[in-house]
Design goal:
The chain is mainly alpha-helical. The protein has 14 helices and six strands.
């Protein structure tokens, strides 16, 4: 009668230990999986990383010719036939036969396929230095562009296409009439244009002359991009030839500073476009109490005038009444005649 009780007790003990055994097996299995995954990850790390695929080489751009451009840009192509740049198509010295458009805009094969404006070069949207490089590839040695690289427009990043309309005819490609030239320059040089509204001025508002009569917009070897006339003379003598010389008795400012030593070339509130309201004020800027290493014979050249020049007397307040040849004289070292 006692054996059945023992079996019942052992079975109950075994059933009590089964959850513990199952938990132990689960923990062992999890540990084994961790070891296996760790070793697999280590083996994967030891393998060299796969190299990324090399990017495909961009398609080579090709020149398509001006006729291809004209198929879409018909209006520009017609106007271009009257443009001086059409010679790029026909003249072999420009090295772009039948490729006048692409000589400035670059190869157009990608643009032709995509019809996207971003796929072709537009000089009007390039930095000034890059746009100028395109123009100067043909115009570098032209006489009028000798100072373009070192000129003030280039230094201030004003490109060629800021003033020139490349696709239009010869009359519209660059301003030709004085009124049009002055209007174009005044769009940037507004302070200078305001000077021409003064009572004494050069006659630009009346279109009697233009800015390029005195200035070379492409640059010059002289300051302020002044034009050179008669070999290397400033542009003033083109109109004021009687002031040119050479004179045996030259006035020093004419040789050192030029006309602007005494005159405001764009316009002045003073008669004769002088820098000062009275003539003797201009003269006394130099002929004042200045020291002289070697006094000259008459004591007036570059120093205080003689004692009889009483500047309180109106007779001596207009120096040019006596010193008439103030720009230079052929006979008088005092510029009296």
């Amino acid at each position: 009668m006692h054996r059945p009780q023992v079996r019942t007790a052992s079975r109950s003990a075994l059933s009590a230990h089964r959850p513990i055994r199952a938990l132990a097996l689960a923990v062992a299995a999890a540990g084994w999986l961790t070891i296996v995954s760790g070793s697999a990850r280590a083996q994967a790390d030891d393998k060299p990383a796969a190299k990324p695929a090399a990017p495909s080489a961009p398609a080579k751009l090709e020149y398509m010719g001006s006729e291809t451009c004209a198929m879409c840009h018909e209006d520009l192509a017609k106007a271009f036939q009257k443009n001086p740049h059409r010679l790029v198509d026909t003249d072999k010295k420009y090295k772009h036969p039948a490729q006048a458009c692409e000589a400035c805009h670059g190869p157009s094969s990608k643009h032709e396929d995509s019809m996207n404006a971003a796929d072709i070069r537009n000089p009007a949207k390039l930095p000034a230095a890059e746009a100028d490089r395109i123009c100067l590839s043909c115009h570098l040695n032209a006489p009028t562009h000798v100072g373009r690289i070192s000129g003030s427009h280039a230094k201030n990043e004003v490109s060629c296409v800021s003033c020139h309309s490349i696709h239009k005819g010869p009359e519209a490609m660059v301003a030709r009439k004085p009124a049009d030239i002055n209007h174009l320059c005044a769009t940037c040089h507004r302070d200078v244009w305001a000077s021409f509204q003064r009572p004494y001025k050069h006659r630009l508002p009346e279109s009697a002359m233009s800015c390029v009569d005195c200035h070379n917009p492409h640059g010059s070897l002289l300051p302020h991009s002044l034009q050179l006339v008669e070999a290397n003379e400033p542009a003033c003598v083109k109109c004021h030839g009687d002031k040119r010389g050479p004179f045996p008795f030259a006035h020093a400012p004419m040789q050192l500073e030029g006309c602007t030593a005494c005159h405001e070339p764009h316009g002045s509130a003073n008669p004769r476009m002088l820098t000062r309201a009275r003539v003797y004020f201009v003269c006394l800027e130099c002929h004042a109490n200045l020291s002289q290493p070697t006094p000259v014979a008459n004591g007036t050249m570059g120093a205080v005038p003689p004692a009889f020049h009483d500047l309180r007397n109106p007779r001596f307040q207009n120096c040019t009444v006596c010193h008439q040849k103030i720009h230079g004289s052929y006979v008088s070292q005092d510029f009296l005649k």
